[in-house]
Write a structure and sequence with these properties.
alpha+beta; ten-stranded mixed β-sheet; two-stranded antiparallel sheet; globular; Thiolase_C; transferase
């Protein structure tokens, strides 16, 4: 089978809700990443055969085909098509899978996989709440689904609490994990570990002067167990808080994926080779456990063990998710989310998949490591797993 390669892997720095990126229209934010991918690679933008964009809340400023709108807002020519997809939190990881599959099948040579989410300008849950507030419909789940699974709604918060209870994770353990995420992210930022992957975006500072946003805004450099412990739990008898869950975030990300032929024809240098693409689905009620069986399948299909994987990015939607994954898979904690995760850096929903891959690719190169694995839990009990080989 033909191979697929990642040539460039970029992202914006995360913006807090109502923070540095609040004035950026999501189409413009995504377009900035598209332009940077093309500019940094040096490829003729007219050679891009498709742009696959992940976005969860495709309403308001992210409606009417955000993928195509990103292309129109960019310097790519009108001849470049696009498609917008939604696999919940894994949307832009699935963008990468679709891009790689297109290249591996031989139907396309140069494809961009991207993602975008402005959680400030299009708040989480807006596609559900807007129709209900207008008195239209009954929501995304018909009674047949509710009856089948014995629930009135599907909640990731409930899933996270269930995982913590099932594994016996205490509030203190979750907060300790969250503190580690902030400390790793702070250390990585101070060391310039993210510099090669971040696309700076022009913003106005508090005095109205133009500057550039190039530093993840959600990192708590002074995070402490005392501070995390002071936060209220989301449920009176629960263990999940805003401090040990992922942060609401604005951001965009992108990956330039090409064939071996395109590497040779256009003199491109690959950062990584796609080694395995896996997606599975399971329990939609707890829903956050699926990265575990998905990882097992990916490792089996690739003929590798977790010991062969040098670094892993497991999305920190909630602290119990990577903690349970680590215990079940038997991974090395020192290889997990080495530059921090979504608890510190933010989780811009549709952009997170390609964002994590950008971080993974650059972390492998910085450490001189070979294999990396990325996975994340997704709404509905789905999980994507991607294994790459750094080149």
């Amino acid at each position: 089978m033909a191979e697929a390669y990642i040539v460039e892997a970029l992202r914006t720095a995360g913006g807090k809700r109502g923070g540095a990126l609040k004035d950026w229209h999501p189409a413009d934010m995504g377009a900035a990443v598209l332009d940077a991918l093309v500019e940094k690679s040096g490829i003729d933008p007219a050679l891009v055969e498709d742009v696959i964009v992940g976005c969860v809340s495709q309403v308001g400023e992210q409606s009417f085909h955000i993928g195509r709108n990103m292309v129109m807002a960019s310097r790519l020519p009108d001849s470049v098509p696009a498609v917008s997809i939604d696999r919940q939190c894994g949307s832009s990881q699935q963008s990468l899978h679709f891009a790689a599959q297109a290249v591996m099948s031989g139907t396309q040579e140069v494809v961009i996989a991207a993602g975008v989410e402005s959680m400030t300008r299009v708040p989480m849950g807006t596609p559900v709440f807007l129709p209900l507030q207008a008195g239209i419909g009954t929501g995304p789940w018909p009674q047949s689904i509710k009856d089948r699974y014995g629930v009135s709604e599907f909640s990731q918060f409930t899933g996270a609490e269930t995982i913590a209870k099932n594994y016996g994770f205490t509030r203190e353990q979750l907060d300790e994990y969250a503190l580690g995420s902030h400390r790793k992210a702070a250390e990585a930022t101070e060391a310039g570990a993210f510099d090669s992957e971040i696309v700076p975006l022009a913003i106005l500072d508090a005095e109205g002067n133009e500057t550039f946003h190039a530093r993840d805004e959600g990192i708590r450099f002074d995070a402490s167990l005392e501070g995390l412990g002071s936060l209220k739990t989301l449920k009176p008898d629960g263990v999940i808080t805003a401090g040990n869950a992922s942060q609401i975030c604005d951001g965009a990300s992108g990956l330039l994926v090409v064939s071996e032929r395109a590497l040779k024809d256009h003199g491109l240098k690959p950062l990584a080779r796609i080694d395995n693409l896996t997606v599975t689905a399971g329990d939609p009620v707890i829903m956050l456990m699926e990265p575990i069986p998905a990882t097992r399948r990916a490792l089996e299909r690739s003929g590798r063990s977790i010991g062969d994987i040098d670094l892993y990015e497991v999305n920190e939607a909630f602290a119990p998710v990577p903690m349970a994954w680590l215990r079940e898979i038997g991974g090395d904690p020192e290889r997990l989310n080495v530059n921090g995760g979504a608890i510190a850096l933010g989780h811009p929903l549709g952009a997170s998949g390609a964002k994590l891959m950008a971080t993974l690719v650059h972390a492998l190169h910085a450490r001189g490591k070979r294999f990396g694995l990325q996975t994340m839990c997704e709404g509905g009990g789905i999980a994507n797993v991607t294994i790459i080989e750094a080149l």
